[in-house]
Amino acid sequence: MRSLLHVLNLSVQSPNRPILHDVSFTLESGQVLAITGESGSGKSTLALSLTGLLPPGFQTNGSIRLEKTELSTLSERDWCQIRGKRLGMVFQEPMTALNPTRRIGTQIGDTFRLHTTLSRREIDTETRTLMEQVGLSEADVSKRAYPHQLSGGQRQRVLLAMALACQPELLIADEFSTALDARTQAAMMALVTRRCETQGMAVLMISHDLGLVRRHADHVLVMKDGACVEQGTTASVFNAPRHPYTQALLTMSLHGAARTPLTPLPVFTAPL
Ligand SMILES: Nc1ncnc2c1ncn2[C@@H]1O[C@H](COP(=O)(O)OP(=O)(O)OP(=O)(O)O)[C@@H](O)[C@H]1O
């Protein structure tokens, strides 16, 4: 296994105040790292820093290295070569990530058009295969459909297809399965895990769902107030949490109370 992502002393400052403080971790290829912590602890800010998508006016310090590429100083032009190709992303709200005016097949195909030299026919075949892999069979969803014709879960599947299209080295998934039903969530995670095993893809998943984290992550990093309070293998963090905050999170989760104080309930988008 090779070391893929190195984050060293990453700090992020919004125009008003510091948000992340000296966050450091590494992620190896083929491994799943879960970032967890309560609402407002900085998980999404971390995901945005790793994808070069922080809002204007935010400043970062420290290093984010994807193998030999330093990401923290990349120009927007260079980012376009990395996002969608070496780095796949799936975020929480599929409707904002998809273009409402373009058919879903076209949007999946765009990823191939942008990053590969595949012919039109090959892109068509790849798009169909990917749609099947994420559970969007032709019988249920046409690739000619528009995002608004899909349910929230189907839109998340489209986003996952786009993220996986170019076989990225790293997938960053921010609460992407939170709004999915248990069966769909399990199917999507199985697909992601298979990519880790067969292609060595690494996954940084952000989730407040400790059950999901325990089932799927190899390592866990716990965040509080923009800092990492604990990190380690999933077994060590769950079986012998050292930090009182981690202990409290696990206790709340055990008693089914985690969701209430940690994060608002997910918003479901009903099928149209
Ligand atoms: N665009 C922004 N401008 C200013 N502050 C922001 C912005 N986005 C996030 N923050 C602040 O940064 C802190 C961390 O927010 P972030 O969304 O990263 O937390 P989170 O752990 O992902 O929370 P959640 O689980 O609710 O998504 C919060 O205090 C938030 O108010």
TrEMBL record:
Q: Describe the location of the ABC transporter domain by residue ranges.
A: 5-250
Classification via InterPro entries: AAA+_ATPase, ABC_Ni/Peptide_Import, ABC_transporter-like_ATP-bd, ABC_transporter-like_CS, P-loop_NTPase
- Cellular location(s): Cell inner membrane
Q: What is its main location?
A: membrane
- What SUPFAM superfamilies has UniProt attached to this entry? P-loop containing nucleoside triphosphate hydrolases
Q: Write out the entry's keywords from A to Z.
A: ATP-binding, Cell membrane, Membrane, Nucleotide-binding, Transport
> What protein name applies here?
ABC transporter domain-containing protein
Organism of this sequence: Gluconobacter sphaericus NBRC 12467
